[in-house]
Amino acid sequence: MLKKFVYGSITMLFAVIGLILIYTFASPMIESKFPEMYWPVLIGGTSGFVTVGILIAPRVVKQVAKIIEKSITLVSSMSLFDLIACVIGLIPGLIIATLIGSALDKINIIGNYLYIICIIFFGYLGMLVGYRKRNDIEQAIRAASTLSKDKGEKVEKPLKKDKHAAKAIPVKVLDTSVIIDGRIPDIFRTGFIEGELIVAGFVLTELQHVADSADPLRRQRGRKGLDTLNELREEFPDRVRVVETDYPDTPEVDAKLLRLAQDLHGIVLTNDYNLNKVAQMQGVTVLNINELANAVRVVVLPGEEMTVQIIREGKEANQGLAYLEDGTMIVVENARRSINRYLTVIVTSVLQTAAGRMVFARPKTAPAENMAENTH
């Protein structure tokens, strides 16, 4: 019913526009030269505009619905201060539009239309400038607030110019893999991650599908991710926000995630190597917790001595494997017979790979078994 009403309104609008245009421009000439054609032209021209209105009404409604949907998505993803910045930019835009439009309004026939176009153009331009300058506006408001507070307290403080003024902390957009990983709450507690954590609605949907999977392993991973989110929201309710923004024209979750990060001017938090590379190609900043884990591993240098426990055999003959507390694997030569024993080893080399760091070492002194074998 509502759709039919909208279609009818658009058709009536075109009928009125056609009637006004024909009556204003065509009627004087037809009435003076071909008076008998006055009514046929008026009715026929108006009918033509009505037909055009009927034909394009569905497309107009469809495009307007898309614009409204995108506007709602954009506004819902903006913070309160972003909206305030847009309003602050809108005010001077409307003032400029009024000054220019008042002059254009004096033009015959098209003056009113130019006035409306001027208001729309400069209003939008003002909002756009206000949004892009929101960081400067925020700093100005804070500076004014601080100055006002200082005056109220009647305290004279020297003004310091900070050349490196702090910018607004970008939000961190979580992807599915990093939620399932489960390390985010521990990292968040340390304070190394600042700002607000954003969880997209489509990421929650993907987590629920994984948690409802028939595969026991996938189901366990999905439930672990949901538990991680609940832990974050309970411990940091003011710093975790769920955003229902979606992109129906983009089917892949990773692509939606990158678009959301771009719209929010945020940073993607992940441990997915492929997503990391794609984000870099699209100019989206990424924080990879695997890279963080590798960066904080213990630094081991060739020639350094350490005592390790040989856990199991290595791939090559007579090798033993040990691990540091941070999970770094140590490959020890001539240590196969020392499994479940502690050995003092000397680091011979360190290999950094995409998967992490590997340390190669040899025993400081040969194990008793090897010495016995060598004597034989």
List keywords for this structure.
six-stranded mixed β-sheet, 58% helix, Rossmann fold, 4 domains, 376 residues, single chain, alpha/beta
Helix content percent band: 55-70%
Structural category is: alpha/beta
Radius of gyration: 34 Å
Number of domains: 4
What's the CATH C level of the largest domain? Alpha Beta
**Which blocks of ≥5 consecutive residues have pLDDT under 50?**
153-166, 368-376
Specify the CATH homologous superfamily of the largest domain: 5'-nuclease
Mean pLDDT score, rounded?
Answer: 80
Q: At CATH's second level, what is the architecture of the largest domain?
A: 3-Layer(aba) Sandwich
Question: How far from one another are the termini?
Answer: 99 Å
Beta-sheet strand percentage? 5-15%
Q: What report would you give on this structure?
A:
The structure is a single chain. The protein is an alpha/beta fold and 376 residues long. The chain has 4 domains: 77 residues, no CATH class; 78 residues, no CATH class; 124 residues, Rossmann fold, CATH 3.40.50; 71 residues, OB fold (Dihydrolipoamide Acetyltransferase, E2P) (Beta Barrel). It has 13 helices and 11 strands. The strands form 2 sheets. The protein has a 6-stranded mixed β-sheet with strand order 6-10-11-9-8-7, with no helix packed on it. A 5-stranded parallel β-sheet has the order 3-2-1-4-5. Strand 7 and strand 8 form a beta hairpin. The longest helix has 40 residues.
